[in-house]
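Target chain:
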Amino acid sequence: MLRGFLCRSTYDLRHAWASWHAQSGTPLNVLQDLGGWESVEMVSRYAHLSGGHLFAYARSMADNLDTVATN
């Protein structure tokens, strides 16, 4: 019973670690090397991203479109 709990906790910790890295801007290929994954596809399974980190990029694009539209 305890062993299953530890394995689940280790999985959760690795998942959180990868997600925090990805949300902080660590490229997936770098994260792949850091975490020892064999493929970027596997990294993507661990590094689920929330939408919050994308707001600045979306805002930048909207600002650029506004500039183009007014010129």
In short: The longest helix spans residues 2-23. The mean pLDDT is 79. The chain has four helices and no strands.
